[in-house]
Design brief:
The chain is of the alpha/beta class. The chain has helices spanning about 35-45, 60, 65-70, 90, 95, 165-180, 195-205; strands spanning about 1-10, 15-20, 25-30, 45-50, 75-80, 110, 115-120, 120-125, 135-140, 145-150, 150-155, 155, 185-190, 195. Helix 1 packs across helix 3. The model has no long low-confidence stretch (mean pLDDT about 95).
Length: about 210
Amino acid sequence: MKWERIPLGPLQTNAYILSHSNGTCIIFDPGSEGKKLVDHIEKQGLTPLAILLTHAHFDHIGAVDDVRNKWNVPVYIHQNEQEWLGNPLLNGSYYFMGGEVRVKEAQHVLTHEQKLEIGEFMLQVLETPGHSPGSVSYYCEEIEAVFSGDALFAGSIGRTDLPGGNHAQLLRSIHDKLLSLPEETMVLSGHGPETTIGAEMDTNPFLHGFE
């Protein structure tokens, strides 16, 4: 099992492909440039099984329907943001792009922390709100990695000045849910390079002094 990061769109939002040796894969946060992403998946000879969204800001959802329409795969989103997919005011595209991003409804609405078993993939859903009210992270123990969306970055944390953002809540989510993972866990963020839980515990200035 392996992962690949593909930065997409003007904000270089990281989409991730988690693939199995049997040729199946899961797509995390297909944010934009749908044709580019679909072509890449096809060239790799992969068959997507699902789309998992860490949250529903426009730069993380813009290519959802391109991937879904190509392979007829289900989409997973937290219940606190299920209405954001089709609402440009909520997903932020109305304000940031001068255009509108609208995505069809998700087939699976996450209501609590749970284990997901999708084909050969086993993932733990962690509720990590703060950047947005429905932000979740997906921990894959087998590859020792967590797909953290815009909760935690290398040397930084997600912004909390957007609607539904809450700085104190984000710090609590990171402390309780992400920093409790093994220190060697790779953090695969929504923007920028990968890091590890241990590195962020040691060097991330936003996390120092938090109790």
